[in-house]
Amino acid sequence: MAFLDSLSKFISIDLGTANTLIYINGKGIVLNEPSVIAIKEKTKQVIAVGKEAKAMVGKESRNVKVIRPVLDGVIADYDVTEQMLRQFLQKVYKNRGFIRPKVVVCIPCGVTEVEKRAVKDVTIQAGAREAVIIEEPMAAAIGAGILTMESEGNLVIDIGGGTTEVALISLGGIVVSESVRVAGDAMDSSISNALKLDFNLAIGDSTAEMIKMKIGSAIEDEEFDKKTLDVRGRDLVSGLPKTITISAKKVRKILEPVVDQIIEAIRNTLEKTPPELASDLMRRGLLLTGGGALLYGLDKKISKITDMSVIIPDDPLTVVAIGAGKYLDYIASSKK
């Protein structure tokens, strides 16, 4: 019964473009699944969510539709997002019966009031008793163990699937921020488009992501640039299956414009940083989180351009959800 009581109180949800994570206070992260849902086209019946649905991407039959309902960090399809969230919550609760919890939801700092309201509404419709919003950079800072209530400044760079969030945090709030809808998905699209233009090869989203993860990089590195990868797809001329070999150096060149846009967002935020807080950043360094933090050499490139150290937490993919969960733990303890 005590376990059920803890479930009924607080959970946090990192509703990301690429992945959705759910955290239960006292239990940690209990779900980490792709933000993907498969439904029947005519009846709208849910066939699969998460990993099972992502495995269907590019392989669906004509009566099955695989959807990513969150795009560029915001809800693109309200009804489908609600269905996906409800399914994820049922996975977490399993056979214990559905208990309406209080939920903290992470959102990009650049969303509009309409987009913010949509996130709260869809969370409540999916089964939450109440929805509380926290901005992703703040959650990332908390998750990384930064004491956000201090007067010292901390710069968080959170690169997700749909958005890159750069925020300066001090005294429990965001001082200045920059949000650009350029992140992991833009890198994948750049790879797909380049292979079409340069090799007449059509590949799926999963293949583009695999290329990025295996041989993607942000800096020139003689040894890493020598790496190659065999890529299978469809020849746009003959229509037949085709395999090409692509180098890490080629992929680095493809990703360069996207990386430059992320760097520009960091520059813009630093230019707006008050001098007193800028000196804190020189001493403390910058925090790099999200899936984009795993791109080879990105931390080194940011460090070289800003002349500041860059810190990547042990698990940059889950730090936002963990931070929102710690925020929940604080809420829970403050009400005792």
Question: What's the SSE blueprint?
Answer:
Elements: H1 2-9, E1 10-15, E2 19-24, E3 28-34, E4 37-40, E5 46-49, H2 51-54, E6 64-67, E7 70-71, E8 74-75, H3 78-93, E9 102-107, H4 113-125, E10 130-135, H5 136-143, E11 154-159, E12 164-170, E13 173-180, H6 184-199, E14 201-202, H7 205-215, H8 222-225, E15 228-235, E16 241-247, H9 248-271, H10 275-284, E17 286-289, H11 298-306, E18 310-311, H12 319-334
Parallel strand pairs: 1-9, 9-10, 11-17, 17-18
Antiparallel strand pairs: 1-2, 2-3, 4-5, 4-6, 7-8, 11-12, 12-13, 14-15, 15-16
Account of the protein in words:
This protein has 336 residues and is an alpha+beta fold. The protein has 3 domains: 155 residues, Nucleotidyltransferase, domain 5 (2-Layer Sandwich); 91 residues, 2-Layer Sandwich (Nucleotidyltransferase, domain 5); 57 residues, Alpha-Beta Complex (Actin, Chain A, domain 4), CATH 3.90.640.10. It contains 12 helices and 18 strands. Helix 4 links the parallel strand 9 and strand 10. The strands form 5 sheets. A 5-stranded mixed beta sheet has the order 3-2-1-9-10, with helices on both faces. The N terminus is likely disordered.
Q: Which H/E pattern describes the elements?
A: HEEEEEHEEEHEHEHEEEHEHHEEHHEHEH
Tally the helices.
12
| CATH architecture classification of the largest domain | 2-Layer Sandwich
Specify the structural class: alpha+beta
> Which descriptor suits the 3D outline?
flat
Q: Could you name the ranges where pLDDT drops below 50 across 5 or more consecutive residues?
A: 1-8
Q: Can you tell me the CATH superfamily of the largest domain?
A: ATPase, nucleotide binding domain
Biggest sheet strand order reads: 3-2-1-9-10
Number of strands: 18
The level 1 CATH classification of the largest domain is Alpha Beta
> Radius of gyration over alpha carbons?
21 Å
Count of the domains: 3
Biggest pleated sheet? 5 strands, mixed
Distance between the termini: 19 Å
Helix coverage percent:
40-55%
